[in-house]
Design a protein that fits this description.
Elements: E1 19-25, E2 31-37, H1 39-48, E3 52-55, E4 60-63, E5 72-79, E6 86-92, H2 122-135, H3 141-147, H4 149-174, H5 181-203, H6 208-217, E7 225-228, E8 231-234
Parallel strand pairs: 1-6
Antiparallel strand pairs: 1-2, 3-4, 5-6, 7-8
């Protein structure tokens, strides 16, 4: 867990000794709720790793999920530039809203969203690859790939793609489920492929933004599409 401690003396408390806290899902940045914290709530949050608030209606400390079990596990906390608002990045154990929705900002009666897949973390990986491309530190595998040019990186992409196919066929043959050895092997090979694809983009001076723009351009209002021979085809 990565938590940063915010000294209470840096916070601009309101007249009631409170400050608003925005809560977002660490996986995709989705805003989940807004509540208020005081110094006691911040201390309890940092001590337990689970987000606590100050209940204004009850006038006391409140651990989110203490009744429902849908706790918010703290990943990080940040103070805004004016010092009068906090941002909690969390791993939610279940729906955040008392209505059973993922976010308190969902429409009334909205179903609980599927758990986000965590694609937002790829931004961090891309930043690391970009930094390696600029500095080329010795001993870095990414630097070694980039120094080898498009032939080396392209060959690794082709190898990893083949290994993904083999792992997928092994998983299918085993009739495996999540958590099994073949499923873990498949996940590992896909991770290798994603990494090498990003390195290939960096080597070419391209970026994931360009590839994602292509995907968005092939998306129709009616839903996702396939691309066959470069032409978008509706599913």
């Amino acid at each position: 867990m990565s938590r940063s401690v915010i000294p209470s003396d840096r916070i601009r408390w309101n007249g009631d000794g409170l400050v608003p806290a925005i809560v977002q899902d660490a996986l995709d940045g989705r805003v989940l709720m807004l509540a208020y914290v005081d110094a006691e709530a911040i201390a309890a949050t940092e001590a337990t790793g689970e987000v606590h608030f100050h209940s204004r209606s009850r006038g006391k400390l409140w651990r989110k999920g203490e009744t429902s079990g849908n706790v918010l596990r703290l990943k990080s906390v940040a103070l805004d530039c004016d010092g009068d608002a906090l941002l909690f990045s969390v791993d939610p154990a279940g729906p955040t809203c008392h209505r059973g929705t993922r976010s308190c900002f969902d429409l009334e009666g909205a179903a609980l969203d599927e758990k986000p897949q965590g694609f937002a973390w790829l931004e961090e990986l891309w930043r690391t690859i970009e930094e390696r491309a600029q500095t080329r530190p010795p001993g870095s595998y990414t630097s070694e790939l980039l120094e080898g040019g498009v032939d080396l990186v392209g060959r690794k992409v082709a190898e990893e793609a083949t290994e993904v196919l083999i792992a997928a066929k092994n998983d299918a043959k085993a009739g495996a489920r999540a958590g099994s050895a073949t499923r873990e092997a498949l996940a590992g090979e896909v991770a290798d492929l994603l990494y090498h694809l990003l390195v290939l983009l960096a080597e070419r001076g391209s970026s994931p933004t360009e590839a994602l723009a292509q995907l968005r351009g092939r998306h129709r209002a009616s839903g996702p599409i396939d691309s066959r021979q470069g032409s978008p085809v509706a599913c």
